[in-house]
TrEMBL record:
Protein name, as recorded: Molybdopterin-dependent oxidoreductase
Keywords: 4Fe-4S, Iron, Iron-sulfur, Metal-binding, Molybdenum, Nitrate assimilation, Oxidoreductase
GO biological-process terms attached to the record: cellular respiration; nitrate assimilation
Organism: Prosthecodimorpha staleyi
Family of this protein: Belongs to the prokaryotic molybdopterin-containing oxidoreductase family. NasA/NapA/NarB subfamily.
Region of the whole protein represented: 3 to 712 of 902
Keyword Cell division carried by entry: no
Claim: Protease is one of the keywords in the record: no
Domain 4Fe-4S Mo/W bis-MGD-type: 6-64
Length: 710
């Protein structure tokens, strides 16, 4: 995996799930010698970049990099560090069994990294304790897709956003979080007159100037869509032929919806909306066949996220508006490679290549890998995994490319739990963060210097199932190495040299593609058989392509389910009955406000990269909390003053922004800042570790908190 320093390089943005193509051009006037431009040939962005992508050249400097392995606080060689990991994992398994070791990965790492981690754990260590921060991102969509479609399939493509007549965004601030897709939606609006509805408790940049903003009460989205299901039947918009031929279960879903949300007045009362607003929304959807419903973290990050997804999918199945141009449900992925991670089994409840832990799949994957210790059951999901660390049942943990001491719910507990591990391995590009612990005396026993964006070589998959290459254009600094290589070296040290003898990232990708097609891969949605023999030159030249891509296919498929065939055993989609909408915890005298968390326009996750850009830092330079003016007056807060947010899980001190668009009774705070970069500012410390019972995704949008001036 070398570099190509003398020429421009086509690569893919490392931030959000839009997955924009980037051209990095040498430029002696740029801060680090490289300037980022949009790739005009990439079908996600056609040459455009948002503020974060445009500033990529500012973020590739050497500041703060971890440049050599560290073992027990001392500089070490790679050999010593890898020997220590292999011995630690071997001894832990010998003493406590395979489920005492775990991996916690990231939607930031590449598909090739994910593949090798998954193979090592599930095929050679005998544990499925491989989870990822994608659990916090879109696990509810994964579960919703699988329940309805029989597979984790995004049915549509970005071109549907260009061709829709109505775009409904649910729980999404796309103008800040998926800016290039938002630009495509705006272009559709200007060019074709598409209308835009946003369903979000708070006013955001995305609600500016749109056709309808439904400032819904937190946690009631499913009720709104159940009401819509009823209204569409009354308006004669259910597609009876599609429902009868291609689905099961509408009668039960409809009966439940009718009982809970049978009239517009009932829906209005339950969602806190005006009846006229509800009626306008229902009418718009009824009259607009080409409707795309886009949903993001406001739906997924919920203790009822799977129910919310189900209520949205039910509407599209009932109307047959799925898999056809300009219509369908569309999950907006948060991270750049949450999709690619899932494709190789990056979630603890998946095996590999979209296979589950069925006896047939365990046997098939085990034979393909030549596995010596196949995991036989799903592993621990993220929140459960760290509770197992706290309880002492997980004793060796390898964290890669993520900062759970900031980002996981009840982050104080998570940070404390890390100190209990017999072996904590952290693969990182930087030398200091809350998970590593400040300075060399922190809890990480082994710190591995990871290759960063611009140095790594591999693939990512964006929200529309499009695989794109991340290509290196900088040499690896110091002793930094790709994550897949470190994982393979540990596999080799554990006696599995043949299974982990990957010459390069292309070899990893080729094996991943071959596994997806092994023994009738086409029976599943995810099939990359056309790449099973891709050589290094083909890999290097790979153009962005959507899966499925079975053997012999020359082009990917923009849409699935257009033929009405789903991946359930009988080929029919399944309506689901959502549970009764309810908050996980209600505000009370001790914690009278609901905390909603999210992103801002110009920062990414815990700011490891975006925090290096002076341009991006000018947007919103410090951690803040948005408060409705009436709440600010009630709690004695002033705009620009400091406030302390607290509850029984933790506390944070943030700048007050009095915002009329904030919903009364709720406050909003961004996720990016941490104790490492901004004092007491880890908002994850306040979020309760309450999860959806099916997806395991935490409720990050409605945690009761107290607020007081500082
Ligand atoms: Fe990167 Fe997302 Fe911005 Fe595209 S929209 S440039 S992928 S952050």
């Amino acid at each position: 995996d070398g570099s190509t320093p003398d020429m421009q390089v086509r690569t893919t943005c490392p931030y959000c799930g839009v997955g924009c193509g980037v051209v990095m051009k040498p430029d002696p006037t740029a801060p680090h010698g490289w300037r980022a431009q949009g790739d005009p040939a990439h079908p996600a962005n056609f040459g455009r970049l948002c503020s974060k992508g445009s500033a990529l050249g500012e973020t590739i400097g050497p500041e703060g990099r971890l440049l050599h392995p560290v073992v027990d606080g001392r500089r070490a060689t790679w050999d010593a560090a890898l020997d220590r990991i292999a011995a630690g994992f071997r001894d832990t398994i010998a003493q406590y069994g395979p489920d005492s070791v775990a991996f916690y990965l990231s939607g930031q790492i590449l598909t090739e990294d994910y593949y090798v981690a998954n193979k090592l754990a599930k095929g050679f260590l005998g544990t499925a304790n491989v989870d990822t921060n994608s659990r916090l991102c879109m696990a509810s969509s994964v579960a919703g897709h699988k329940r309805a479609f029989g597979s984790d399939t995004v049915p549509g493509a970005y071109e549907d956003l260009d061709e829709a007549d109505l775009l409904v965004l649910v729980g999404s601030n796309a103008a800040w979080c998926h800016p290039i897709l938002w630009q495509r939606m705006q272009a559709n609006r200007l060019r074709r007159g598409a209308r835009i509805v946003v369903i979000d408790p708070r006013a955001t940049a995305t609600t500016d100037g749109i056709d309808l903003h439904l400032a819904i009460a937190p946690g009631t989205d499913a009720l709104l869509f159940e009401g819509l299901l009823v209204h569409l039947a009354e308006a004669g918009r259910h597609d009876r032929a599609f429902v009868e031929t291609h689905t099961n279960g509408l009668a039960d879903a409809f009966a439940a919806a009718f009982a809970r949300a049978g009239t517009i007045e009932t829906v209005a009362a339950g969602t806190g909306l005006k009846a006229a607003e509800v009626a306008t929304f229902f009418h718009l959807v009824a009259e607009t066949e080409r409707t795309v419903t886009l949903y993001s973290q406001g739906v997924n990050q919920s203790h009822q996220g799977v129910d919310k997804v189900a209520a949205i999918l039910n509407v599209h199945l009932a109307t047959g508006r799925i898999g056809r141009p300009g219509m369908g449900p569309f999950s907006l992925t948060g991270q750049p490679n949450a999709m690619g991670g899932r494709e190789v089994g990056g979630l603890a409840n998946q095996l590999a290549a979209h296979m589950d832990f069925t006896p047939e799949a365990i046997d098939r994957v085990g034979r393909f890998w030549g596995a010596t210790a196949m995991a036989g059951k799903p592993g621990l999901k993220a929140v459960d995994l760290f509770q197992a660390v706290e309880a002492g049942t997980v004793r060796a943990l390898w964290i890669m490319g993520t900062n759970p001491a900031v980002s996981l719910p009840e982050a104080d507990r998570v940070r404390a739990a890390l100190g209990r591990l017999d072996l904590l391995v952290v693969s990182e590009v930087i030398g200091s963060n809350d998970t590593l612990g400040a300075g060399l005396s922190g809890p990480a026993h082994v710190r591995l210097p990871a290759a960063a964006w611009g140095e790594k070589n591999g693939t990512v998959t964006n929200s529309e199932r499009r695989i794109s290459r991340q290509r290196p254009f900088r040499p690896l600094p110091g002793e930094a190495r790709p994550d897949w290589w470190a994982l393979a070296e540990v596999g080799r040290r554990l006696g599995h040299g043949q299974a982990f003898a990957f010459a390069d990232a292309a070899a990893v990708y080729r094996e991943h593609a071959a596994l997806s097609a092994f023994e009738n891969g086409g029976a599943r949605d995810f099939d990359l058989g056309a790449h099973a023999h891709l050589d290094r030159a083909g890999y290097d030249a790979l153009e962005p392509v959507q899966w499925p891509l079975p053997a012999g296919a020359r082009r990917g498929r923009a849409r699935l389910f257009d033929d009405g065939r789903f991946f359930t055993p009988d080929g029919r989609a399944r309506f689901q009955v959502p549970g009764e909408p309810a908050l996980a915890a209600r505000p009370d005298a001790d914690a009278p406000l609901l905390l909603n968390t999210g992103r801002i326009r110009d920062q990414w996750h815990t700011m490891t990269r975006t925090g290096l850009s002076p341009t991006l830092g000018r947007h919103l330079p410090e951690p803040f909390v948005e408060v409705h003016p009436a709440d600010a007056a009630w709690f004695g807060l002033t705009d620009g003053g400091l406030a302390r947010l607290s509850n029984r899980h933790g506390a944070a001190v943030l700048r007050v922004v009095v915002a009329p668009g904030q919903r009364r009774g709720s406050v909003f705070a961004p996720i990016h800042w941490s104790d490492d970069n901004a004092g007491q500012a880890r908002i994850g410390a306040l979020v309760a570790a309450v999860t959806d019972p099916i997806s395991g995704q935490p409720e990050s949008k409605a945690t009761p908190v107290a607020i007081a001036p500082v």
